[in-house]
Structure formats: structure tokens, C-alpha cells
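About this split. The held-out portion is used to measure sequence recovery: a designer receives only the C-alpha cells and must propose an amino acid at every position. Recovery is the fraction of positions where the proposal matches the reference. Here is one held-out target exactly as it appears in the evaluation file.
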């Protein structure tokens, strides 16, 4: 019996023995006198103290889950949904298995089977939260994170994403092999085409977003020099988006917390969709983001949006590009990436030789000249094919000559000595005869 039930037994026994009145017993138990009389009657007619115990003790509740359901939930978690948290697991059971269970019920079932959460929760550090912006489109936060999104089915790759600070909506996302400018550019294009141009962008201090030479000295600032921008920074400047670069990860906490949610849920979703490549993951990503936004998006404080409408004359392909300066040559030609280009059509602008122009290359590889807010398309000039010089056949090495038997190399040392002696005697005789002839001429 419980402690409250034992207290009832003691009070009823004191009333029956005459040590307490019904009013005193009712006040002690917090009941009415009528209820006190009922308890005393039940004690006397139904077998004493056992009659005051709750009638449902030892009985299985009518709404309790069947053992088959509990076993099925544990089997599904161990086989298909391993690694998901209790809330996500309850959602997946409702979507895919037609089992309507609360997260607390799922937790009790798994704990009873000895299955704990794969990712233990830990106490977060104390950081003062920054208040959300009041309007949608007032500020986006952008970042990328490398992770094993497909577990052991493929190598790890990076997810690039941007989230609206006011609503928590993921405005764009894309998978890329590594963190790169192309990934951030694709995310921005997705969000701008769907929602509009935001007023501000919050990012980290990666060199994709800022030039290493961005800080200026006092002398440079007094001289009127402007800060050098990266290619991505120039695109933000062209779209009039205020670019803020955070000094710590906590400053852009919205996007950092998004990674924890996606790494917890997206891995399970991709596994259930039987996705094994990055290309397949990119194809399924829009539907998964729509599901995520439907569940986690918030209503902003101000219903009015702060998005700027994209001008129809602006082509985002020509905004998110690499940019370099080139000097025009004779005939409006220029060199770029070891290739020679010229204008595809006669330019309406008078551009003389030695004119410095800006060359842009889009994400698709198209190369254009950007002049006076207008794209001038280029045409690659094929390099002349030069005839290869005919190879001159070199004379082959002569065959080794075999010396004759009379060759000095073939004679013995004694023979060579005799030949040298004979030549020396002949020379001496010649000199002696020449001397005699000269003496006779003198006489």
C-alpha cells in the first residue's frame, strides 16, 4: 500500500476504536464527513485495510501499449532508424510505419529494452542569446560544414547552407566536395531567386568572404584607398548586401545550431531514401529542406518582409563570378587562362588597344567582358596548327672494325721491340750517310 493509503487505514481504525470522530478524521485526511463515513463502512464490510487500497493496483491499464508494439518499435530502431533521437524517431514512426507514439513513450520503450540515445546530450555553455531580427530578409547567416552525410556509403563532403535569422527558414543549400566559393554562390542564387535579396549577410572570416589584404593602414585610409574585396565580396557589394564577418562561431549561432539539427536528422533521412552519391543527395535536398522548414520555421515579429526585389535586368550568373583585369590588344583581343579571346560581336563601345577591362568567368565556365554594367560575350580564337618539323634521321653508329693480324694490337711485345730496333738502326744509317756526304763536299 502507498503511504496515503496507510494513513487512511490508521485514521479509520482510530475512528472505529473511538479515539477520533468522523469530523476529526475527515479534517486529517482532507475529506468530507460523508466520504469519511464511506471509508469506515468499506473497512468494516469488505475485509479491513485491503479494502482501502486502490482497485487498479496490479491491473494492466486499458490504454497501455501491447507487448507486440513495444517489440516492433525496438526492432525498427535497431534495424532501420538507428541513431535517430526520440523526437525524430517518433516522427518517422508516424510517417512511415503508421505508429502514433509520443517521444516520451518512445523513450520509455527504448530504455526498457536497454537502448540509449546514440548521441548523449550535454550541458551547453552559457552564452547570452542575441535577439532575432524582426523581419524576414533582414539578415541571412551562411556557412558550410564537412560531414559524413552518407555515413560509410561515400566519403565525407561539405554542406553549404544559409538560414534566415528572423524565421529560421533554410533559404538555400547544396552539397559540394569541399567548402568552396562555388557552393556559397549556388546557395545565394537559390535564396535570392526564391525569396529576394536580403539586406545583410553574416559569415565567418574565411578567405572566400574576405581578402587577406583587407585591413588598411592609417596612411592608406587617409590616401582614400578602398578595401580590397574577394570575388564573393564584390558580388555582395554589387547586390548592395551588407556583409558582416563574425569573429566567433557563437556570433552566428543560428547557422551553427542548424548543423547540429541537420547532422542529427539528415543522415537518417538520406539513409532511408537509399541515397549513395553526392549527386543523388543534391537531387533529394530540396524536398528534405521543405520538410525541415515546415517543422522548424518560426513566425517573425513583423509580418512585413525586408527582402529587396531582384531587378529583371540583373543576371545572377554574371554576378557570382571570378573577376580579373586584362588589357585589350590590337583587334580587341585579350588573353585569359592561356587562351585568346575576341568579341563575339562588334562592341557598341569604343574600346581602343591598351584599354583595361574586367573579365568575368561564370560558374558554368563562360568568359565575358563586363563593361558599363553590360556583358560583352567573347569568342575563343583557335590557335593556328603548326606543322611539325620532319625528324632528320641521324646517322647510325659505325660498326666496330676488327683489326687485321698485322695490326700492332695483334703482335707480341717482342715483335714490337724488334720493329722499333730496326727503325732506329735505319735512321742512324741514314744520318751517317748524310754526314759523310756533307763532309766530302767540304773537302
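Reference sequence for scoring:
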Amino acid at each position: 500500500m502507498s503511504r496515503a493509503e496507510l494513513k487512511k487505514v490508521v485514521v479509520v481504525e482510530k475512528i472505529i476504536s473511538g479515539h477520533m470522530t468522523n469530523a476529526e478524521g475527515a479534517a486529517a485526511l482532507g475529506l468530507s464527513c460523508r466520504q469519511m463515513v464511506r471509508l469506515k463502512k468499506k473497512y468494516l464490510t469488505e475485509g479491513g485495510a485491503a479494502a482501502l487500497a486502490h482497485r487498479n493496483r496490479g491491473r494492466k491499464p486499458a490504454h497501455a501499449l501491447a507487448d507486440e508494439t513495444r517489440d516492433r518499435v525496438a526492432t525498427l530502431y535497431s534495424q532501420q532508424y538507428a541513431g535517430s533521437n526520440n523526437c525524430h524517431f517518433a516522427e518517422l514512426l508516424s510517417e512511415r510505419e503508421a505508429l502514433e507514439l509520443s517521444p516520451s513513450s518512445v523513450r520509455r520503450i527504448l530504455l526498457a529494452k536497454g537502448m540509449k540515445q546514440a548521441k548523449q546530450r550535454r550541458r551547453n555553455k552559457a552564452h547570452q542569446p542575441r535577439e532575432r531580427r524582426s523581419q524576414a530578409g533582414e539578415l541571412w547567416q551562411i556557412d558550410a560544414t564537412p560531414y559524413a552525410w552518407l555515413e560509410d556509403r561515400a566519403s565525407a563532403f561539405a554542406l553549404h547552407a544559409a538560414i534566415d535569422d528572423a524565421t529560421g527558414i533554410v533559404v538555400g543549400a547544396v552539397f559540394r566536395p569541399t567548402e568552396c566559393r562555388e557552393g556559397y554562390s549556388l546557395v545565394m542564387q537559390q535564396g535570392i531567386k526564391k525569396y529576394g535579396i536580403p539586406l545583410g549577410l553574416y559569415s565567418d572570416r574565411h578567405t572566400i568572404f574576405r581578402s587577406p589584404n583587407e585591413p588598411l593602414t592609417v596612411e592608406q585610409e587617409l590616401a582614400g584607398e578602398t578595401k580590397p574585396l574577394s570575388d564573393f565580396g564584390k558580388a555582395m557589394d554589387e547586390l548592395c548586401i551588407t556583409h558582416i564577418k563574425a569573429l566567433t562561431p557563437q556570433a552566428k549561432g543560428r547557422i551553427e545550431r542548424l548543423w547540429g539539427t541537420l547532422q542529427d536528422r539528415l543522415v537518417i533521412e538520406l539513409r532511408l531514401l537509399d541515397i549513395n552519391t553526392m549527386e543523388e543527395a543534391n537531387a533529394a535536398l530540396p524536398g528534405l529542406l521543405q520538410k525541415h522548414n515546415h517543422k522548424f520555421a518560426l513566425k517573425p515579429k513583423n509580418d512585413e518582409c525586408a527582402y529587396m526585389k531582384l531587378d529583371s535586368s540583373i543576371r545572377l550568373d554574371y554576378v557570382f563570378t571570378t573577376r580579373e583585369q586584362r588589357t585589350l590588344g590590337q583587334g580587341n583581343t585579350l588573353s585569359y587562362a592561356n587562351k585568346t579571346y575576341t568579341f563575339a560581336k562588334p562592341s557598341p563601345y569604343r574600346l581602343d588597344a591598351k584599354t583595361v577591362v574586367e573579365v568575368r568567368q561564370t560558374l558554368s565556365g563562360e568568359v565575358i567582358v563586363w563593361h558599363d554594367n553590360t556583358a560583352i560575350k567573347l569568342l575563343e580564337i583557335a590557335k593556328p596548327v603548326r606543322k611539325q618539323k620532319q625528324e632528320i634521321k641521324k646517322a647510325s653508329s659505325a660498326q666496330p672494325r676488327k683489326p687485321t693480324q698485322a695490326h700492332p694490337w695483334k703482335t707480341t711485345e717482342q715483335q714490337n721491340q724488334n720493329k722499333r730496333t730496326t727503325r732506329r738502326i735505319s735512321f742512324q744509317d741514314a744520318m751517317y750517310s748524310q754526314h759523310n756526304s756533307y763532309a766530302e763536299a767540304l773537302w
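Annotator remark: The first helix runs from residue 3 to 17.
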